[in-house]
Amino acid sequence: MKRKTTLFLISVSSSLILGLWLGAWYIGIQPNILKNFTNQPIADLFSSINALFAGFAFCGVILTVYLQIQELQDTRVVLDETAKANKMTADYAKENAIVELFRTYCSEYFQEVKNSSMNVLIPAVASKEYFDFLVSRFFVAEQKHLNVISWERIKEVSHYKNYDEFKVGEQHDRYKLDELINFFTILAYQKDAIDVIGRCDFSYSWWRPMFWMIAIAQDSRYHSNEAIKFYGTKPYFKEVVKRLDVAYGLNPIDNIQEMISLIKDHPKLNKQYNLDPNHLELNSWKV
């Protein structure tokens, strides 16, 4: 529609200017016609036509500016549509990435990862001594050794029949816990996907108290041991759990006291996982 209007204006203007030009030539070659209207020289008459052409030139400038404005508006519309399309593509890619992670989480293989992780996490809740051993194994230096004494509390919550069986299966289960932590790390660091994560149930309410226990203990152990600092890398899991808390609309924990408040009356940790009272002692976390 805009193009037809522009072509119409150009055609009318061109026809009018051409008609005036031809009329001026006709009058110029028949001077007797002018004498009936004016005694001015022909040159003065054509000066007015020059002024008319200057006026049309100015109209041409205005038309050019108008066309440029229309072109800019059209370009702006195209850019807005492109931006919307790009945003839709980015949103789709973001949601698709979370969906793929959720499929992984629900897969048969990952079910083994979750079960094996719980075989480690529940005993870690029941035995502070085993928990300290577990946390020490996240670092290359100052690793603790598994002590048979911890079995006294572990056997109350473990499906393993005896300590020797537990000792053999524990290493396998602990490696699966590494996979689980890496999975949630990848999930937490999905770019601009916090809102999508919050809409998917990764059973975070089950993992959260035990994740915070590990994160706080890792952080405390790292900052209190120079050998670990020298040979290891700074733990990242505390930041991971903070990001997940934000995604699920929870207030992240800042210190050991807040973590103890989270676990001391927790229904799962106390009633089913037989929480070791030593976990509630503030000094026991300064390792």
Overall description:
By secondary structure, the protein is mostly helical. The protein has 13 helices and no strands. The chain has helices spanning 2-28, 31-35, 42-106, 108-126, 128-136, 151-154, 163-188, 194-197, 204-223, 226-231, 237-247, 256-264, 267-271. Helix 4 crosses helix 5 and helix 5 crosses helix 9. The mean pLDDT is 82.
From the helix content, strand content and strand pairing, which structural class follows?
mainly alpha
The biggest sheet amounts to: none
> Average pLDDT, to the nearest integer?
82
Helix content: over 70%
Could you state the order of secondary-structure elements as H and E?
HHHHHHHHHHHHH
Fraction in beta strands: under 5%
Round the Cα radius of gyration to an integer and report it: 40 Å
Q: Per the principal axes of the C-alpha atoms, what is the gross shape?
A: rod-shaped
The total count of strands amounts to 0
**Which segments are poorly predicted (pLDDT under 50) over 5 or more consecutive residues?**
none
The tally of helices reads 13
Head-to-tail CA distance between termini: 77 Å
Q: What's this, in brief?
A:
By secondary structure, the protein is mainly alpha-helical.
Question: Which descriptors apply to this entry?
Answer:
mainly alpha, 287 residues, rod-shaped
